[in-house]
Automatic annotation (TrEMBL):
InterPro entries: Acyl_CoA_acyltransferase (IPR016181), GNAT_dom (IPR000182)
UniProt keyword list: Acyltransferase, Transferase
A GO molecular-function descriptor: acyltransferase activity, transferring groups other than amino-acyl groups
N-acetyltransferase domain location: 17-158
Name of the protein in question: N-acetyltransferase domain-containing protein
Organism, scientific name: Paenibacillus illinoisensis
Stored Gene3D superfamilies: 3.40.630.30
Amino acid sequence: MNYELIQASKEYKGIIQNLMQFYIYDFSEFIDCDVEDDGLFRPYPYLEDYWVEVDHRFPYIIKQEDNYIGFVLVRCIESERKYFSIAEFFIMKKYRKEGIGTAVAKQLFDMHKGHWEVHQLESNVPAQHFWNKVIHEFTQGNFSDRVHDGRRIQEFEA
């Protein structure tokens, strides 16, 4: 389970943009979206913000050997309180079930210390199982889990 988590500089934007097509394809099982007239899914609307709001948005690329295998977009949200959140998390199917996703998530929690909220669509049961397992392991069961507005939300301290 050899992988590398790289904080993505602007040079990686195109790679994340390309991987985002596979992510949206996978995610289309849970949301209503179709490809546009050019055969591609609509571009992710907030991607550019990850290189503009550098204190609140953190893009990462995941590599194994010389292969790009996924990406993660982390946000720091400051409203009534400050917390980190996984905006998007993607590992290509070929590399799933090897422990890479779990290792990447735990590494991110260690890198971004503080309060976390991780959300999944209520219809995305596989993601709920993944995040509950990972967060339970990371926190040794010290987290809250609730459903609100069609989303399952886990909260914890890292």
